[in-house]
Amino acid sequence: MQSADQELTTEDWTRVFHQASALGVLHLHLTGGEPLARADIAKLVAAGREANLYVNMITSGLGLTPDRMAELKDAGLEHIQLSLQDADEERANEFAGARAHAHKLKLAAFIRQQDIAFTVNVVVHRGNLDRLDAILALAESLEPQRIEVAHVQYYGWALKIAVNSCPPQARLNVPCS
After folding, report:
1. What mean pLDDT is predicted for residues 96-106?
2. Within the chain, where are the H helices?
3. Residue 9 DSSP label
């Protein structure tokens, strides 16, 4: 949640990946924000593989083109997770903050054609929980090898939203809906 000029450099991350590997870490999980926003993402993937880490990326898919996918695969990307915010296009775009839903559906077909592990990462929160069945059905229709359900509560964002939207008396220990 910082500006790009506050991020670690490619060289710093490369050093961290090698140090992590030496400590016994096995898996490099590139997520965001959006990892594809980094111009050096293929170099980071390559640095992770050079450090003998299994490299996974969670992405919105925005910025992923056939050429970029080839570059990432050549760099050593082994697994890609495509985030899906909702089954309803209008709501999905609203939650994503971009007109990305239709692009993601087309991108899923492209990813399936690649020789790479593919997961659909379903982002669940109080704004779409009532449509979980439809979202999971859409995720299944994209034919990934796996579906991950990621609840934003793990990051504390849902709690913050819930607390801020509750009346003061409900903030003590009683959840509000």
Report:
1. 91
2. 10-22, 41-50, 66-75, 89-96, 101-112, 132-141, 157-165
3. P
